Amino acid sequence: MAIDGAAPCGGLEDVKFRVRGVNVYYGDKKAVDNVSLDIPTEFVTAFIGPSGCGKSTFLRTLNRMNDTIPGARVEGRIELDGEDIYSSSMDVVQLRARVGMVFQKPNPFPKSIYENVAYGPRIHGLARDKTALDEIVERSLQRAGLWEEAKDRLNESGTALSGGQQQRLCIARAIAVDPEVILMDEPASALDPIATARIEELIHELRGRYAIVIVTHNMQQAARVSQRTAFFHLGELVEYGETSDIFTRPQVPRTQDYITGRYG
Ligand code: ADP
Predict the structure, then answer these.
(1) Which residues does ligand 1 sit against, CB inside 6 Å?
(2) What phi, psi does 34 have (nearest 5°)?
């Protein structure tokens, strides 16, 4: 489906994020240009496009991570379950718990595996006692596919794990505060093929429980893990629709050129 202003996500479904007319600037430079789309609750949505086209910048608008970047400015409207996330009454700490994020480079805290997962629930007051906290830690590590490998070494440093394990620890950390959405910015690009496959499997397992949005420069990965794909180019959302349609019958020549490798 080509984009014409407001863009539903292919015959919708439950909408998690409703995005309308979003621009992002770094100083005078416009990095995201008038993007409108709906992100569904029950699917994995992939953002693809050549390096520098604004995928990560746009992803960061969804939990206001751009607020932390000096000079970044966001215009337009983004609603999470109908609520304007840029309104002055929005609690940004709460928003980032509801909309968790996993980065390209695994970034566990230099603390134990247990503490990495327990930190969020503790500061958000999600566990009434140690037993409840232990349960959250175990459940989060299980959902992130790390429990079997980590259960006998919970007191070891998170940074002692392998890269793939560290990334699953970061996913467990996001899960621990019971998010509605998990944003993943190139989550496997620093990992070897086996660790990458494990992350992709995990995305399948988590789908349905959380809305997942993944930025990837790897088109095969987008085709494997997502049900909706948005193609960005030069800061614009060029085309958005069902992943199978975007990869097999794109409607816009620019999408066709990209997926057939003519640029990017
Ligand atoms: P992508 O994720 O598609 O590779 P980005 O969102 O990282 O694209 O970047 C989009 C544009 O914004 C690029 O031109 C990039 O150089 C610029 N940009 C990204 N982050 C910053 C920043 N912190 N400060 C200034 N410009 C930035």
Answers:
(1) 26, 31, 49, 51-57, 69
(2) 55, 55
Q: What is this structure's pTM?
A: 0.94
The answer to whether position 74 is within a domain reads yes
Q: Which domain holds residue 147?
A: 15-259
What pLDDT digit, counting tens, does each position of 171-181 carry? 999 999 999 99
Amino acid making up residue 103? F
What total number of domains does the chain contain? 1
In a domain, 72, yes or no: yes
Q: Locate the ligand 1 atom nearest the alpha carbon of residue 186 and give its number.
A: 2
Q: Cα 66–20–15 angle (5° rounding)?
A: 95
- The number of helix segments (H) and strand segments (E) in the chain equals 10, 10
Helix axes 163-175, 193-206, angle to 10 degrees: 20
Ligand 1 center to residue 46 CA distance, Å? Answer: 18
Neighbours of 135 (CB within 10 A): 12
Q: Alpha-carbon distance 209 to 143, whole Å?
A: 10
